[in-house]
Amino acid sequence: MSDFDAIDSLLDAVGPEAELPPCQVRRELRERARLSKAQVARALGVSPSTLGGWESGRDPVGEVRTKYAYLLDGLNAKLAAETDTTAVPTQEESVASGTAAEAVTAVSSPEPGQDEDDVELLTVPEPCVLCGRPAEQRVAGFAQHLDPSDCQATPAETPKPPPTAPSVLAQEPHTARPPRPADGKGAAPRGRAFQEPSGPADLIHEAVHAVLAEHQGDVEAASAALLKRAIPDAMRLLDETRKGARYDVIAHPWIPDILKKQTSKGTDQIWEARPKWTRPELPPGKHEVTALDINGAYLSALKTHLPLGQLEHSTGFAHDRRRAGVHLITPPEWEHDAVLPNPIGQRDEPGPLWVTEPTLRLLLRLSGLKHGLCEPPEIHESYTSGATENLLEKFRIALKDARDTAIADSDELTLEYVKAMYSKFVSTMGESNYNRELYRPDWMHIIRSQAFANLWMKALKAHDGGLPVVRAMGTDELHVIGDWRRVFPEGRSVTEVKVKDTYTARTGTDASTGQEQ
Predict the structure, then answer these.
(1) I want to staple 197 with a disulfide (CB 3.0 to 4.6 A). Which of 176, 313, 329, 390 is the partner?
(2) For residue range 173-203, what is the model confidence (pLDDT) as tens digits?
(3) Phi, psi of 355 (to 5 degrees)
(4) Rounded alpha-carbon distances, angstroms, from residue 156 to 143, 148, 362, 364
């Protein structure tokens, strides 16, 4: 391609954005076409939660906007054509068509309580996971009959419920596996046609096995492929773990300017309180220093207070623990730098600064009666929303369970895949070209700061346990003197620590290297 061809291509890409109908019309077109969110999202290459955002107030950008506009225009044209060609039926035709419509609704519509977005209509029938006969619907990714009477399983496998029993599908809307054969062990209980879901962690193991089989057992090639798909796989896992949740994930809310980068390569105004501290002077004598590695720091930090919706501005000194976000504060003086790092990190400039929820809560905790290590911070203004600490809890537990299983099985391939999923999930939820499904820079800063706050609390635990703290760095590095095993459990789980290094240091040496100064 010549230079002018490249310029022409660039000019072609510049132009007015594709026009989209109002949000309520977008949803109406999809529902009139009898398409689920899952079907449309898959065609556009996004998640159902992202599509839900486009139907409730947000707009897509870039190439996916053009695709979405093309889809909506096509649906509008098709539905308009069907309306124009519909003749006025006779009374007999109305009765017949009404009966047919009721029959179609009985087969294709979900039962009461069933999530319509989990039901897909199949153009080509697939074998039902229960009886093996052709089914025209897929529920939660599995082909199956929506009407139990259509499912002709053997009596031993699927006992037919009594006529007065409630619909099976209304009881079990999300199906992951067919029931086990009735061999006397683990048989499905009477009156239930579906086995309990196997759990989101199984999605991770299934992905690893599929990629490993695709690359014919080549672990190195499989690892490279899994790392490339870690971000979209993490988003799919998030959608899976949010099914039936009390709160929706607002993927693209309005963001205040303080959370936006000032330049393309610059940063925003949020201070994450990243620790980078070395003890200024060691205790007298020669010491054996152990550098401890904190396992799964970002994974543990997913359990933090996250704002649910759009951030709202407020002023004043009060802190509402039911809300979370970012806060402009004047931090208190820190008088313990000789033995513990400053909770707000190593900051050169004095005065007010924007901090996240975990940093503010840490300062408030340390200023309380239990610790009394500093004065309370002065809060000037805040951007917050109603919050919950458990928004990502099922997502975190699924990753943790997969990580624990991989460690127990010495499965390094799955272990690296899981690590890539949660670390890239956190790092790309801000302004990133690698994850356009989620734009929450507030969450990114909050999760990072929670990891730093967790490390700080481990430093305090070591100090209170009689272990002189020598160094605290980043999210997962803590250097201490003494018998650390009486304070911290050793191992590879997220509640344990492991040894990264040991070295000898004495007064008059660099505490981080053990070298004489």
Answers:
(1) 176
(2) 333 334 444 444 444 333 333 334 456 768 8
(3) -125, 170
(4) 21, 15, 58, 61
Strand-by-strand arrangement of the 142-143 sheet: 119-127, 134-139, 142-143
490, 481 Cβ separation under 8 angstroms: no
| Helix axis angle, 230-241 to 201-214, nearest 10° | 150
Cα R_g (the chain), whole angstroms? 28
DSSP 8-state code for residue 509: B
Per-residue pLDDT, averaged over 145-165, amounts to 47
246 three-state secondary structure: coil
Amino acid identity at 469: V
Under a CB-based contact definition with an 8 Å cutoff, are residues 311 and 293 in contact? no
Quick: pLDDT tens for 375-412: 999 999 999 999 999 999 999 999 999 999 999 999 99
Whole-number Cα distances in Å, 336 to 281, 341, 457, 463 = 13, 7, 14, 11
What is the biggest distance separating any 2 CA atoms in the chain, rounded to whole angstroms? 102
Please state, in angstroms and rounded to a whole number, the distance separating the CA atoms of residues 353 and 472. 22
Does the pTM surpass 0.70? The reply is no
Residue 105 corresponds to which tokens in the numbers above?
């609704």
The kind and range of the H/E element at 223 are helix 219-228
On whether the CB atoms of residues 37 and 48 are closer than 8 A, the answer is: yes
Residue type, 458: K
For 114-150, b/e burial (b = at least 16 CB within 10 A) is: bbebbbbeeeeeeebbbbeeebbbbbbebbbbbebeb
Residue located via tokens 């070209």: 433
